[in-house]
């Protein structure tokens, strides 16, 4: 971090007006590399170089990957020092022995050196991990001190320090212990910032009760006294604390990697003791892992922008009320930017704004009549020729929800006369979401966020993770409407009950399905679907991944009728996502084929004569698949809606995020969005293949009787 409160910082004080964020993005090839992002205010960040590495890890490291980058402005104010863990996670957490030292005079060009601790210092021959190095200038010695965590054998990790040589290419002193966790366990990810003449060492504890604590000292290399409380503002596991001072004088930011949730948390503090979450003020177009932020000057920021930012990236920072930012699409060849807006948006006074970026300007900056057609905007980056773009506002209805959601279940509630969507909360790395929401609509186009209806950590005792693929049924019991909500948690299926479609829902207290049904030993107990047979009034639960199982529910709707569980897997195309509905004497079964991370994820169907009978699979049974021409991929995990009292049908499904999903690799499989299109049948009852659209459907009106 930029060191404040010591003499060298006073000597080189400059009017810092922007911020440079250096980070890596995850485990695996290409992710374990140094990336840069820039910000004008410390809250809103934009990745440089299209979120691609600014250095080649294979060239600068011994292992082929680098993690945990830390950047520091030198004592002269114009030299920069960067250090990183030399490590590839695929080799194991106990596999690395060193770090990479880097140096630059302009933030654009870097020299690098590799340091292997056991090779450089035979006293540390049994060291098996060297993690998260950082650099600080020692004003007393006039040298740069590196501090990092090390572990020897099976001992707890401790934080050590050593001084770099003059050229910043090696360590010239034997590593010495700087700090250990006095309460026991490991001590990693140190970050030092100076305030009021005192050194504040932020670090992470490992093991039970892990989190971020602070130790304080009057001296850089000794005397740290533990302030024995956690300062992270979340109950989720965290690591990689990074602290920086805001340029506007309004305190400090403590940020950290909430690594099990694939997100960062930002907190603000005035005194380095009390921390307030400011996540709702933060925006980033990337997903960082363990990084650091350094204040920079306008001149430095402009140089970074000219090197690694383009006009087309600037124009895509567009923001506006009623805009769906994750669906903004740039046609680079035509220089056209398509702005998807919510239904009902007044295009005559539409006012796009753009992220404030150092050295960049977008004009005009006033409301424009977009109803008349494309509007011309101009992007200027300091020192570069301005570039013009045409901006077009588009009122498509797909996706129907703003944000990342998947596995949609749809319900028409007779009690309220409204429609409700119950999706998986998506956008979490590795499908790691932990809560469920619902949305209501009078017409299938305009949707209201009704909030969280079930939060696994708070509301479910037996499953705290992987909140996936819910379903719901409305039942009238003794003249009163009840809502039974079946959901996946920790690869088990539970049920919660409410008096209203928006909850609050109360979990039954135990899993309804937690083991493989007899006759199966593969797949997962996920993706429940509930169906009430209009012929008999009996309700059935279906579930399974790789296999399809079904069973009759007891009248209490919270237990399975013994002896009714049946394996009814239709054919080899079945993967998951069963949905059952009834039409004209036939029971239709739909399911998803392939993997949700695949662009070829799609829906097929079969027909049976009873809810648990043999499923007959038509030769041409594709319901919906990708529409490559429209850039729509990964269409699957559906539910089906029949408008009450009609033979009008709709398919509700998720797809990859448009337009970014197809470029995201496997991450497309957990950055999905919900869509609705019309479902139609041929005269013989077969389903007509659905072509997924961006336009979606028009608002529906239910007849009032």
Automatic annotation (TrEMBL):
Keywords: Carbohydrate metabolism, Glycosidase, Hydrolase, Polysaccharide degradation, Xylan degradation. It holds the Pfam family Glyco_hydro_43. It comes from Mucilaginibacter robiniae. The lineage of its organism: Bacteria, Pseudomonadati, Bacteroidota, Sphingobacteriia, Sphingobacteriales. It comes from the Bacteria. Coiled coil: none annotated. Belongs to the glycosyl hydrolase 43 family. CDD domains: GH43_Bt3655-like, GH43_BT3675-like. InterPro entries: Glyco_hydro_43 (IPR006710), Glyco_hydro_beta-prop_sf (IPR023296), Glycosyl_Hydrlase_43_Enz (IPR052176). One of its GO terms (molecular function) is hydrolase activity, hydrolyzing O-glycosyl compounds. GO terms for biological process: xylan catabolic process. This is Family 43 glycosylhydrolase. Transmembrane segments: none annotated.
């Amino acid at each position: 971090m930029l060191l404040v409160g010591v003499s060298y910082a006073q000597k080189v004080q400059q009017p810092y007006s922007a911020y440079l964020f250096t980070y890596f993005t995850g485990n695996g090839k290409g992710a374990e590399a140094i990336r840069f992002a820039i910000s004008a205010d410390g809250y809103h960040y934009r990745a440089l170089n299209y979120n691609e590495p600014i250095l080649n890890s294979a060239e600068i490291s011994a292992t082929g990957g680098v993690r945990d980058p830390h950047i520091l402005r030198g004592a002269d104010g114009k030299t920069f020092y960067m250090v990183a863990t030399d490590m590839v996670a695929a080799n194991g957490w106990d596999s690395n022995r060193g770090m990479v030292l880097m140096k630059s005079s302009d933030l654009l060009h870097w020299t690098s050196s590799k340091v292997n601790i056991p090779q450089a210092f035979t006293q540390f021959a049994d060291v098996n991990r060297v993690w998260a190095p950082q650099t600080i200038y020692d004003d007393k010695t006039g040298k740069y001190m590196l501090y990092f965590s090390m572990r020897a054998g099976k001992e707890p990790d401790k934080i050590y320090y050593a001084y770099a040589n003059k050229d910043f290419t090696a360590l010239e002193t034997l590593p010495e212990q700087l700090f250990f966790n006095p309460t026991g366990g490991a001590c990693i990810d140190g970050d030092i910032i100076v305030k009021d003449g005192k050194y504040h060492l932020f670090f992470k504890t490992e093991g039970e009760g892990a989190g971020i604590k602070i130790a304080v000292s009057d001296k850089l290399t000794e005397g740290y006294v533990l302030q024995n409380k956690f300062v992270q503002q979340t109950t989720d596991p965290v690591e990689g604390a990074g602290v920086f001072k805001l340029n506007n004088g309004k305190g400090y930011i403590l940020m950290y990697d909430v690594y099990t949730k694939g997100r960062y948390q930002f907190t603000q503090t005035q005194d380095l003791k009390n921390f307030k979450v400011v996540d709702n003020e933060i925006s980033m177009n990337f997903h960082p892992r363990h990084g650091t932020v350094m204040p920079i000057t306008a001149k430095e920021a402009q140089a970074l922008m000219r090197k690694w930012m383009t006009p087309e990236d600037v124009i895509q920072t567009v923001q506006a009320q009623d805009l769906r930012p994750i669906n903004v699409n740039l046609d680079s060849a035509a220089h056209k930017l398509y702005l998807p807006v919510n239904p009902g948006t007044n295009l005559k006074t539409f006012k796009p704004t753009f992220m404030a970026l150092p050295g960049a300007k977008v004009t005009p900056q006033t409301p424009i009549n977009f109803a008349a057609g494309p509007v011309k905007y101009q992007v200027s980056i300091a020192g570069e020729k301005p570039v013009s773009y045409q901006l077009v506002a588009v009122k498509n209805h797909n996706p129907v929800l703003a944000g990342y959601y998947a596995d949609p279940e749809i319900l028409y509630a007779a009690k309220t006369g409204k429609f409700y969507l119950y999706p998986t909360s998506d956008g979490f790395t590795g499908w790691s979401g932990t809560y469920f929401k619902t949305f209501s609509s009078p017409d299938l186009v305009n949707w209201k966020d009704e909030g969280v209806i079930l939060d696994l950590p708070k509301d479910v005792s037996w499953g705290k993770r992987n909140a996936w693929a819910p379903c719901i049924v409305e039942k009238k019991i003794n003249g009163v409407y009840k809502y039974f909500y079946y959901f996946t948690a920790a690869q088990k299926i539970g049920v919660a009950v409410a008096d209203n479609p928006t909850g609050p829902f109360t979990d039954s207290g135990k899993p309804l399905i937690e083991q493989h049904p007899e006759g199966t030993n593969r797949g997962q107990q996920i993706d429940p679907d509930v169906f009430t047979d209009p012929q008999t009034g009996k309700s059935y639960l279906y579930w399974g991944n790789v296999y399809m199982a079904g069973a009759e529910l007891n009248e209490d709707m919270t237990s399975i009728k013994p002896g009714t569980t049946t394996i009814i897997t239709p054919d080899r195309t079945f993967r998951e996502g069963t949905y059952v509905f009834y039409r004209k004497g036939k029971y239709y079964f739909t399911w998803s084929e392939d993997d949700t991370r695949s662009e070829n994820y799609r829906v097929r169907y079969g027909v049976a004569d009873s809810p648990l009978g043999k499923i007959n699979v038509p030769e041409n049974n594709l319901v919906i698949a990708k529409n490559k021409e429209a850039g729509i991929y990964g269409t699957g995990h559906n539910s089906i809606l029949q408008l009450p009292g009609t033979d009008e049908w709709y398919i509700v499904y998720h797809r990859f995020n448009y337009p970014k999903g197809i470029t995201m690799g496997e991450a497309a499989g957990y950055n999905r969005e919900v869509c609705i299109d019309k479902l139609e049948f041929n005269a013989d009852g077969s389903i007509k293949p659905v072509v997924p659209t961006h336009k979606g459907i028009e608002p529906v009106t239910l007849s009032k009787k």
